[in-house]
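We modelled the chain as a single entity of 301 amino acids. Its sequence is:
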Amino acid sequence: MSEHYPRIRARVWNDHLIREGLSLCFYMKRPHVEMAQSVMHCIETYVLAVGKQTLRWYLDEEGEWQDLDETGWALTRRKLLERPGMIVDLLGRDDDRWYRLMYRGKNPDEPFLPGNPGEVCALSAWLPTEYMEEHGPGRVRELALALAASLPFCSGHAGLSFHCQLNLLGVERKLHEYSLRHPGLDIPELGHLSFRLGTRLRGPAWMNFLGQPVLGELGGTASLRARLSSQGTTVQELDGERAVVTLGPWPEAGDTEQGQILPAYRELARVLEPWLYREVPGQPYREVPERTRRWERRFFD
């Protein structure tokens, strides 16, 4: 176990693994046709960081994993650049280490769900924590900044996350056991958030990327910096009226059973509270589960 996060290796249905990892996520309220070249550049940046042979499979249109050989790469590039909307899912595994890059391309001006203002293009890159242990958190930070530089994001976050498939039997129950104890571990919901997030914020996380309109509504980078006083917190201005808030030199999971409540994360949560995403019922007369509400308030209660 690292001093910054626990080592989680939990097995559920069909021996599916739940483990701790790193996720670098960005959300763009732009149509996919404007995003395709930027996303292709992000894929190239990620592959350069992890090695070309690391990603081994891609998800085809029937939901089956296929070999990511030269033909698979060519097909991915062609569809990404030619289609008005696109799902990309590239995967690599080395024992229990997961590498994954996912993208959900949307057209917010003509949403899939009519009248839905929350649809965004969304990109997520996974790294195992062993990558950070081998290369240092600075390398992860550099990768997150490189991805951010390629994307016209409204928001983004990078830090610790569960690596798992949420839709499998037993996963949600097991996550509930860990997620409230370790509030710094995000729950991966890229597909869901691509339909819901809009310009609101997910987080807080180790690295918090703020674009427009939220950064402007906060009064800009200088105003945001003045409201944060936790030791180790930095606010870096980025081009395009954007900024990134980093909470310490390492991502932290916290442990409420040991009194590790992540005060820097809680401070940022209070500042960003009016803009944080909160789940809404998927159907009329349905309520959001209490466990979801508890997790959303993990940095407040």
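As a brief sanity check on the tokenised model: The chain is about 30% helix and 25% strand. The CA atoms of residues 36 and 81 lie 5 Å apart.
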